[in-house]
Amino acid sequence: MLKKLPTTATAPFCPSEVSGTVTVPESYPLWKKIVRYAGPGLLVSVGYMDPGNWATAIQGGSQFGNQLLFVVVLSSLAAIVLQCLSARLGIVTGKDLAVHCREQYSALSAKALWLFAELSIIACDLAEVLGCALAFHLLLGVSLPAGVALTALDTVIVLALKGRGFRQLEAIILGLIATIAICLFAELALVKPDWQSVAAGLVPSLQKLAERDALYLAIGILGATVMPHNLYLHSSVVQTRIAALGMQGRDKRLDESIKLSRVDTIVSLMLALFINGAILVLAASAFHKPGFGNVMDIDQAYYLLAPVAGTAMAAILFGLALLASGQSSTFTGTIAGQVIMEGFLKLKIPCWQRRLITRGLALAPAMAGVLTLGDHAIGKMLVGSQVVLSMQLPFAMYPLIRLTGRSDLMGRFVNAWWTSVLSWFLFVVISAANAWMVWQALLG
User: Fold this and answer.
1) What's the mean pLDDT in 19-42?
2) CATH number at residue 359
3) Which of 2, 97, 192, 393 is buried most deeply by CB count within 10 Å?
4) What is the SS3 assignment for the chain?
């Protein structure tokens, strides 16, 4: 049953079912504060390594080698800037981005922003359904429709976690991220990349984007990297680290919280950067070779990894990492959905019900796609979900940059002039790039 929330309520992590904040005492040494504060960045980072990222990175690496590696790096750096803004908004104001949008904008504008945010979560969940379904298909040998049906069972997992503390769920996320990292870097060891080529791919160059397909893929990587719902999520979950700090010496404590949050964010998203880079390098090393052909779809990559790497273990590691990627993103998608619903609508439902609604809305198009388009539709649908995500991104960026640039709201923690310039520059570039990608997609 839907319940009205008090206007002062926050939703750090499905608050009706997951409790607890993490105290960061002032007496702790710096290293212990950093360890104690770590966590919110990890929850956000898994959104940057979901199956949609895999699809764009594999296509980019197999078609253009390591040439687009610098796009992964620059996109991740842009994500770090935006996530740091999101965390600072939550820390300074004690309210998440969704609550601010409801309070600062008209009812019609707030409802529109809410719809865009919900669309981004459904698009992201569609990618998770497709990725997990493909993993089940590859690892268990079930059909893709059966794999899609199996993804509905993750609601049971969310229900089983009812009542768990924040740190326990962070530990689960960390375990899934570690699984992804271990599998991918083990595969890199098997395929033996050309590290000189990798280093050359890190150098930004407009010439590398001269081809129309290269530019399209670069924008696809950008759209897959910067997740709109993560901006709402981070501004909420970061508050689990500041609730116990009190108001004495508020500015000093906020300063410390912002710095610790920045460390958490940068370290976590750098980990996501290494994983996304590893996917592209893996595809480039394994498939971008003269006479081998271009691997365009994520499902083809699995079958071709074994003969390229010389062992079936490479394909198994690929499937396990893909499954962990989809499952970890599922957790954060649920949390983000709860934050957005409570923030925009002041409505609260149990986490498992929220999971059921979101997964139900994603299952229908996923099942329809694999039934009508066949087994090789996964890659196309994954990239398509990233197009939908990219369309929503500016609608989350705009209020975030505006709000953090208001001195009446942020006080002395308002954006510095160079932060504002950089943020608006990213907004213009990302909006233009996403608009171009969407236009090209519509043209077919």
Assistant:
1) 72
2) 1.10.4160.10
3) 97
4) CCEECCCCCCCCCCCCCCCCCCCCCCCCCHHHHHHHHCCHHHHHHHHHHCHHHHHHHHHHHHHHCCCCHHHHHHHHHHHHHHHHHHHHHHHHHCCCHHHHHHHHCCHHHHHHHHHHHHHHHHHHHHHHHHHHHHHHHHHHCCCHHHHHHHHHHHHHHHHHCCCCCHHHHHHHHHHHHHHHHHHHHHHHHHHCCCHHHHHHHCCCCHHHHCCHHHHHHHHHHHHHHCCHHHHHHHHHHHHHHCCCCCCCCHHHHHHHHHHHHHHHHHHHHHHHHHHHHHHHHHHHHHHCCCCCCCCCCHHHHHHHHHHHHCCCHHHHHHHHHHHHHHHHHHHHHHHHHHHHHHHHHCEECCHHHHHHHHHHHHHHHHHHHHHHHCHHHHHHHHHHHHHHHHHHHHHHHHHHHHHHCCHHHHHHHCCCHHHHHHHHHHHHHHHHHHHHHHHHHHHC
